Amino acid sequence: MTATTNHATACAPVLFNKVRIKGGFWGRRIDTNRRTTLPIEYKQLKDTGRIDAWKLKWKPGQPNEPHIFWDSDVAKWMEAAAYSLRCHPDRKLEKQLDEVIAMMKKAQLKDGYLNSHYIAVEPKKRWTNLRDCHELYCAGHLAEAAVAHYHATGKRTLLDVMCRYADHISRTFGAGRGLKRGYCGHEEVELAMVKLFGATGNRRYLDLATYFINERGHKPHYFTQEAVARGEDPKKAHHQTYEYCQAHVPVREQSKVVGHSVRAMYLYCGMADVAAATGDKSLLDACKRLWQSVTRRQMHITGGIGPTASNEGFTTDYDMPVETAYLETCAAIGLVFWAHRMLQAEVDSDYADVMERALYNGVLSGVSFKGDSFFYANPLAVYPGMSGLQYNGPDYHYRRSGWFGCACCPPNVARLLASLGSYAYSTRRNELYVHLYAGNRADIEVDGQTVVFVQETGYPWDGDVRMTVSPRKPAAFTVALRIPGWCRSARLSVNGRGVSVKAITRKGYARIRRRWERGDRIELVLPMPVERVLAHPRARQVCGRVALVRGPVVYCLEQTDNGPELNDIRLPRGAKLGSKLEKRLFGGTVVVHGTALRRANAGRTNALYSAAPPEYVKTRITAIPYCLWANREPGEMLVWMRE
Ligand code: FUB
Ligand code: ZN
To answer: Which phi-psi region, left, alpha or beta, contains residue 171 (left: φ > 0; alpha: ψ -120 to 50)?
Structure first.
């Protein structure tokens, strides 16, 4: 969710509590998130000791030593729970939240400091290693939870605790005399302080966010100084370079995405938020340069980013591994957060198209259809037994896990799904923007009155979107509909009369400006044929292969539908492809069928290398949405097929 914006050209998102997504593709996932994922995650947080760490009773030698980033796992769950409560009152969930908050309030030190690891495990070392130890990162997630809880329940219990902590941080860090000129090795606190400013109106928190953004990457380098102060060789950093945490140069000088992917996304969100709140165009310009770097040269087809496990992040332009693709779930979530912020600053369908691509593919693959297990890494091909993702042990092979030692992704998915409605609409003066298509009823403030906006659609399985616009009283305003970049022949009618999409579309939004009356109808038809998508020639690992995409959904082959050795399949240029709604598959899913070729003599030539030309026979293929892979029998998966 984006912080409040305060300058004229920006839009404001319509918040999720005004957007009731019911049924359909997302309604089911949001329901599963509430009924299954949130309780499961609460149990994990209890069983692993992450919540009870706040009792501050841990003693050396006992199990479940409070870890430096446990507070962030708890905080993201609290934020998700707060979003869920706002739309679905739940006494048990509210009680669980209140209990955790009471523990935090009790644990908070007199000076406002609040961190379960440092208070219980190493109290003398607080604020001594900002580069590696996540103190401000955890503070940021706690602040986001506090703002969500306050908006959801009206209670200031967590908000007051967090304001005391943020006041302590503002008395500790800054450019002023006697303050540490530090900032966090893992960005997050920046965007969070802007949210805290939005919730409280206290300018101190916006100034703190602005300081953290402006200070990053300046020399003499704070992380070097603090390492020396710890008696360490700065070169022995966990990750040798400051590119890892985007602290290699000041942010306004950055044009190429580098380093850890989640850190990068949260930094860019903070930059966009400070730009929006202060009108600082130089920060927005830097974001636009970085947007091109990420989405034009380092984003996988699924909206996944950060291809390598070694730094959980970026490498070089067009590096698109498939079997070893890391593409952390949190990174795709961070891309959605950033895209959403860019969309408020400048309504351009490029931002919404990327947000949609990541949501339907690289984010959603991170959670099982049943909502009870998760991916940390999201490869684009798996082959049983492959060395693949040796990150934190076998968990990261091709089956989802119930939890992780480093459990950042599960609660991140939960908080995004619980607030998904916030990503569908924006408003600006007398303009209403529709970014996402899903069945919902929204109460939207436009130019001082409430407009009830209803969408009925089977999207993403079909592209027919029927909308009704009902202002309380007739009024003239603009309804701007995103025309997705993947759609080449959108058709539009208002109250049954055709409208030329081309004539009214600017920056990817068809702008219908008229005097609206209760019950006016819009019909948008977005044909979504199965498309063969090819990669840029510099994307070496996937160039010469083809991926199947239908509307916003990327497809993949699974062994369970197509047999083993998926790499023996070729999908020649002229292959006939069709799509069909399979009602019994995952509650109704459009699958793609086609006639392809399968290598016939693969098994016969045992030679590792051979001059014998391959022989092919016809074969039927079935492809399912990538977000649904690994929900059935274990086996191979492949997004990019040979052509
Ligand atoms: O360091 C906190 C989180 O844990 C990062 O955002 C993830 O990449 C994981 O390393
Ligand atoms: Zn994660």
So the answer is: alpha
**Cis, peptide link before residue 234, omega less than 30° from 0:** no
Helix, coil or strand: residue 204? helix
Containing 215, the helix (H) or strand (E) segment is helix 203-215
What does the DSSP 8-state code read for residue 66?
A: P
Q: What is the pLDDT of residues 340-392, one digit of tens each?
A: 999 999 999 999 999 999 999 999 999 999 999 999 999 999 987 765 443 33
Cis peptide before 89 (omega within 30 of 0): no
Mean pLDDT for 105-123 is: 98
Strand 475-482 to 431-434 pairing: parallel
pLDDT in tens, 482-523: 999 999 999 999 999 999 999 999 999 999 999 999 999 999
The ligand 1 site (C-beta within 6 Å) comprises 69, 186, 262, 312, 328, 330, 406, 408
Which of 411, 408, 216 has its CA nearest to residue 312? 408
DSSP state of 405: S
* Minimum CA distance residue for ligand 1 atom 3: 408
Q: d(Cα 205, Cα 212) in Å, to the nearest integer?
A: 11
Ligand 1 centroid to residue 260 C-alpha, Å: 9
- Does residue 625 register a pLDDT over 60? yes
* pTM for the structure as a whole: 0.97
Q: Are 69 and 121 in contact (CB under 8 A)?
A: no
